[in-house]
Structures are given as C-alpha cells and as structure tokens.
Amino acid sequence: GEDVEQSLFLSVREGDSSVINCTYTDSSSTYLYWYKQEPGAGLQLLTYIFSNMDMKQDQRLTVLLNKKDKHLSLRIADTQTGDSAIYFCAERWRDSSYKLIFGSGTRLLVRP
Amino acid sequence: DSGVTQTPKHLITATGQRVTLRCSPRSGDLSVYWYQQSLDQGLQFLIQYYNGEERAKGNILERFSAQQFPDLHSELNLSSLELGDSALYFCASSVGGVETGELFFGEGSRLTVL
Q: For A90, which of A102, B58, B75, B106 could close a Cys bridge (C-beta 3.0–4.6 Å)?
C-alpha cells in the first residue's frame, strides 16, 4: 500500500529536542523527505536523505534512517516556538513519476 | 516564495457547481503535481503532468480532471462538486527526471463547497 505513517501530535517545551517519527512503505525508496507546513502556507522542504545514508545532519536538524525497519525520524535540537508547524515525511514512489507519498503529518506544538 | 503560483487562493461555491484551479510552476520546471489536503485524509496525490502529458494518476475522482498547457501551466477542473470536496488543493512542481525529487509547493487553493 501507499500509507506512510506518522503520529499526529507532539508537544515539547522550548529549548528541548523534538523527535518526529515516520514509518514508510517501500524499502527500495531512494529518497525520503521531511517537509514543514506553517499555518496558511504551502509545504516547504526541510531536508531529505538518500537511501544509502543512515544519518544526515543539517544545523539543528538530524535525520535518521533505519532501512531494515523502514523507519525515518527527524530530530530538531533546541526547539523554538517558530518551529511550531505540521511536519510531513514523504517517500519517493517507485515508479517513473517521482511523485511523493506523504504521511498524514505530525503537528508540533512548542510551549514557551 | 517557492516560485509556484496558484489561483485563486480561496473559493467558495455550491454543491453541483464546477470550478477551475490554476497553477503556474516554477520557471523551468516541467513536472506539475496536484495534491488534495483534507482534514481527515491528509495529503493525497491526485495527478501528475510532465511536459504536457499525464504521467501518473492517483486518487483522483472521475469528476475531476486536469491538463498541462504548452506554456506548462496546469489547471485542475472539479465538477459536480460535493461537500466532501472541500479541501486545500496544492500544486507542486519539479524539474522532472532523475534528481533529488524535491517538489516546490504553491500556497494552495482553499475550496469550500456549501
């Protein structure tokens, strides 16, 4: 199937780390993505990871990939109130369309 | 600003009506994707066009259709509208082809069917 799964909600205190988890469907997916959606806006790419990598770090963002379990996570260090948004993981589908299959999104709420 | 432009931003219409949503991709992008975001079903892929031709079709209803024109802009036509069609419709574009696959999203068209 095409179901990418994420937990719906996460609440953290400002300054703490946030970890958002995702389970994807296709162990042969070449690229996996994290997108951020702020209220009233479209989706913005945060980062992506190629399937031959286990980890990718980009400033406050760390992506971990466990291909065996088809598990992807996004860690945000020193979470700020501006990080409050919906975070979507996505996998590139296996056909030639390169379409992305998105999870349902995790709403991150950062408390002051 | 992603470079993807969608119009209209908001649209309110009645059941049974027909609407057209428009998308202008980023300059140079050949692929256009349409997604539907509703509260209960998340972000669902509808259809993709590449350089004027349909490349992939997802969960798009028969009442919906789309096309991509020679200037690469795309339109999504929604007809015989039902209450359940109320959603945010996103267009995204990409270069298309073998690359990292990043999609650039417009800000969406919010459709409300009353």
A: A102
Cα separation, A49 vs A67, whole angstroms: 12
Consecutive H or E run containing A87: strand A85-92
By C-alpha distance, which of B85, B44, B59 is closest to A102?
B44
Q: pLDDT of B17-27, one tens digit each? A: 999 999 999 99
B83 phi and psi, to 5 degrees? -55, -40
Our measurement of the distance from residue A74's CA atom to the centroid of its chain's CA atoms, rounded to an integer in Å, reads 5
CA B105 to CA B62: how far, in whole Å? 24
CB contacts under 8 A, B 51-90 vs A, are 55-56, 58, 90
CA angle B102, A60, A91 (to 5 degrees): 30
